[in-house]
Amino acid sequence: MANARESELSYPLGEALPAPGGVLELAPGLRWVRMGLPFALDHINLWMLRDEIDGQPGWTLVDSGICNDATKAAWEQVFASHLDGLPVLRLIVTHFHPDHMGLAHWLTERWNCRLWISATDFNLARLASGSTVGMGGETAAAFFAGHGLSDEESLAKIRGRASYYPSMVPAVPSSFRRLMNGQRLEIGGHAWTCIAGYGHAPEHMSLHCEALGLLISGDMVLPRISTNVSVVDVEPEADPLSLYLDSLSRMLALPADTLVLPSHGKPFRGLHARVDQLQAHHEERLADVLAACRAKPCHAAELLDLLFKRQLDLHQTTFAMGESVAHLNALWLAGRLTRRRDPADGIYRFSAC
């Protein structure tokens, strides 16, 4: 959902963006890389931090991009021109989603370096790269059908996406270094603190450097769009929205003037304002869903037009369905809605208490 209150944020770099295969230096030892994505959300921001490990100077990378030839070629351009003759020492991945994890295996092999990630997201990536997790196949189609998605063409396409995750993350490194909430990393002579976030991914790690006034937010806080928060088939009664909103609230403990380095969009200031915007956005959507379910029992599919004011392609529809269920589950598990599965069609419908 586009941010109608974006003017409350400020963009210190204006409209500047890294060139394809290039970098934009934000500060000494901090470089911004931008890779393409084959989706409506057409880019991901990646970060390079000057570092030293065991006496060896080099670089720490944050996130990898998806696994395709174009992203590999772009990385090779970066390596050829923007490493100052130094090696990559480690790769930090904020969470398991394909645009963040896709090239982790290739990068760690290419540089003989270690992957750093939360244990939850590492193990889910390993599971998903061998099959799929909540993104396609028979169980995903059955889950969405049980929440009212009835278009046979869409369901057939979802069934055919059993290899969706492995197509972008064909392999995962065999070993990793675990990141945990509150853990402090020394990167380039500065302390960076891991901040665990929940709801968007199982155990997403943002990185905050108090001395530099920087937050690498990953997908937890984005300036222009709201982070996807979905229920998927492997955990059908989950409440990721409440987890996400709780995680956002903890971001308010950081200084208001923090420069936020998001995975999508441009670096911005206005962290507290953006957290307030995202919380207000979801409260409005929860109120809309509650009102709709007061009028009549509703399933997730018939709420898509209420929650999303634009045409959705299949990729967007699967995420939108997951997010619709997330809003329903949040209200249901809070005791504000009741849930009933209709024996006639097998669809879950939610009614106001």
UniProtKB/TrEMBL annotation:
As recorded in UniProt, coiled-coil segments are none
Q: Record's superkingdom?
A: Bacteria
Annotated Metallo-beta-lactamase domain ranges read 43-264
**Gene3D superfamilies assigned:** Ribonuclease Z/Hydroxyacylglutathione hydrolase-like (3.60.15.10), Winged helix-like DNA-binding domain superfamily/Winged helix DNA-binding domain (1.10.10.10)
Q: Which InterPro entries match?
A: B_lactamase-like_C (IPR048933), Metallo-B-lactamas (IPR001279), RibonucZ/Hydroxyglut_hydro (IPR036866), Sec-metab_biosynth-thioest (IPR050662), WH-like_DNA-bd_sf (IPR036388)
Q: Which PANTHER family match?
A: ENDORIBONUCLEASE LACTB2, METALLO-BETA-LACTAMASE SUPERFAMILY POTEIN
Recorded protein name is: MBL fold metallo-hydrolase
